[in-house]
Amino acid sequence: MERPAPRPSDAQTLAPALAPALAPAAAPPGDFSLMGLVFAQNPVVFAAAAATSLASGATAVALVVLINLALMSDGENLLRLGLAFALVAAVTVALQTASGILFGRLGQEVLARLRARIAATVEAAPLRAVEQVGPARIQALLTDDVFTIATLVVRLPVLLTNAVAISGCLGYLAWLSPALFLGAVGLMAVGVGGYMLASGRARHHLEHAGGRQDALFSHLSALVSGTKELKLNRDKAQDFRTHHLGATIESVRRARTRGITLLALGSAWGSLIIFGFIGLVLFVFTGGGAVATGYAVVLLYLVGPLAAVLEDLPRLALARVAGRRLQETEAALAAHEAAPAPPVPFTGLALEAVTHAYWDDRTSEMFRLGPVDLAFRPGEIVFLVGGNGSGKTTLAKLVTGLYAPESGQVLLNGVPVDGAIRSAQRGLFSAVFGDFHLFESLVGLSGAPDLDARANRLIARLALTHKVSVEDGRFSTRDLSTGQRKRLALVAAVLEDRPFLVFDEWAADQDPAFKTVFYRELLPELKALGKTVLVISHDDRYFDCGDRIVHMESGRITADLPAGTGRRGVA
Ligand SMILES: Nc1ncnc2c1ncn2[C@@H]1O[C@H](COP(=O)(O)OP(=O)(O)OP(=O)(O)O)[C@@H](O)[C@H]1O
C-alpha cells in the first residue's frame, strides 16, 4: 500500500518514542529543570529546607575550622573552643534534622502532586492523545518515574549540605594555602570532567531503559489480563515468559546496569583523583609535620562530602531521565481540551464531510474514515451497522465529540463545534462502548434524588436483583459476568439522563430475553422520553426498532435509510 502523505491524526501526538513529528511541541530535553519542578511544588517548604541545608553545610565547615584551631591551640583557648564546638555541633545536628524532615515532607508532596498532575493532564488531554501515549507509559510514569524523582528530593538536603561543606572547606583551604587551593580545584575539575564524560554515556543507556520500561509495563499488564490464555497453553506461557516479558525485563536490566556501571566508574574516577591529591599533598609536598596536620584535617573532611556527592550524582542522573520522560509525556498530552461546559439543550447534531485517519506504524497502513455526512434529530433511534473494522466505533467517537474531526465540521444545534462547544457536545452523551469501564459506584450522580431506588428498579428490569443492588450510590459487587456488567453499565448510562445515548454492540453479550428487553422495551421508552439513541448493532432481527439504519463499509457510509426499507441483513 502506498504510504499516504498527510498524517494529521498522528501528528497531534507524541514525544520521541512515539512520533518524532511532534518534536516542536515538546520542550527540548535540556529544558527540564528538576529544581524548578521541586521548587514549584511548595516554594515555602523548599526555601526553608534549602536554607537549613545550606546553613548546616556552613556550620559543618565551622566545625572543621574549630577542630583545626583546637589542634593548633597551645591549650589556653581550649575551653572556649570546646564550648563553641559544642554549640556549633548542636546547631549542625538540629539544622540537619530539620532539613531532613522538611525535604522528606517535600519528597512526599512531590510524589503526591506529580501523581495528581499527571492524572489531571491525562484527564484533560484529548482521547486520541491518551490512546497514543498508551496505558503502559502512563502507569510507568505514575509509579516508577515519579518515585525516582521523589527519592532524589529526599536526598537533596545531603547534597546541598555537602555542596556547601565542600565550598567552605575549599575556601578555608584557600586561606590556609592559595597554591594548595588552586591544585585542589584543578584536580577536582579533572575529576568532574571524567565524571561528566561517563555520565553523558550513562544517560543514553538510562533513557533507553526508560523506553524499554514502558514495554515492560505493557507486558506486566498482559501477564495479569492474559492469565487465562497463558494458563491454558504452556507453550504460549513459556514463549511469553521467555521471549516477551523475560526479554524485556532483561533489556531493562542490561541498559540500567550499563548506565549505573558507567556512573559508578565516573564516581570512582572522581574518588581516585581526590585520594591522589590528598596523598600528594600530605606525603610529597608538605613533608609531614604540623602544617600537614592542618591540611590533613581539611582534606580528610573534604573526602566525606565529595564521596557523598559523587554517590548522589547517579541519583540525580536517574531523576533527570525520569523528569524528561515526564516532560515529554506532558508535552504529548499538552493539547488540553476545553473545560467542561454547562449543559445545552439538544436540537440537532450534524456531521459534514467529517474525516478521521489512524496511522499504524507497525503495518504502515492507514485507516481512513469519511468524508461522512450524518445528522441526528432529538428522539431518533438510529442503528449503525457494518462489518468488523468498517469504522462504526470510530464514527461513534466523532459523533460523541471524543475525537475531533481532522477535516469537515460538526454542527451542534446548527453551530459549528470547536473548543468549548466540543465539551458541550460531549456533555450531551452517555455511552456504553465495547471496552466500557464499570465504576464501583454511580460516580457523578451522588445527590441525585431517589438514586438508589431508580437504579434498583432498572436492575430489577434487567433481572440482576439476585446478584447486585445499589446502596448509597454504590454497586454491591462488580464480580459479575461480562453480560451482567454490561447491563449495569447500561443502568448507569440511563440514570445519567443525558439527551443522547450511544450503545456500541451492547446487546452482543446478552441472552435473547435481554436483547428483547433492550430493543423492544428500553429503546422505545428512551425514544418516548425524547432521547436520541445511536445503536451499533449486528442484530438485524431488531432493526425494525429503529427509525433509521446507517450502513458503513470501509470507513464510508454506504446507505442511510428509514428502518424497514431495503438492505436488511447487511451486517
Ligand atoms: N485506537 C486505534 N488506533 C489505531 N487504529 C485504530 C484504533 N481504533 C481502531 N483502529 C482502526 O480503525 C479501523 C476501524 O475500527 P473501528 O473500531 O472503528 O471499527 P468497528 O466497525 O467498530 O469494528 P468492530 O465491529 O469490530 O467493533 C480498524 O481497522 C482499526 O484497525
Instruction: Compute the CA-based radius of gyration.
Output: 33 Å
Q: What is the arithmetic mean of pLDDT?
A: 82
Largest sheet: 6 strands, mixed
**How many domains make up the 3D coordinates?**
2
Order of helices and strands: HHHHHHHHHHEEEHEEHEHEEHEHEEE
The CATH architecture term of the largest domain is Up-down Bundle
CATH C-level class of the largest domain is Mainly Alpha
Structural class: alpha/beta
The CATH superfamily of the largest domain turns out to be: ABC transporter type 1, transmembrane domain
Counted by DSSP, the helix tally is: 15
DSSP strand tally: 12
Tell me the helix content: 55-70%
Bound molecules: adenosine-5'-triphosphate
Q: Kindly, what is the distance between the CA atoms of the first and last residues, rounded to a whole number of angstroms?
A: 27 Å
Shape: elongated
| Strand arrangement, major sheet | 6-9-10-3-11-12
Query: DSSP strand (E) fraction?
Result: 5-15%
Q: What is the multimeric organization of the chains shown?
A: single chain
Subcellular location: Cell membrane
Domain ABC transmembrane type-1: 44-322
Organism: Xanthobacter agilis
Domain ABC transporter: 349-571
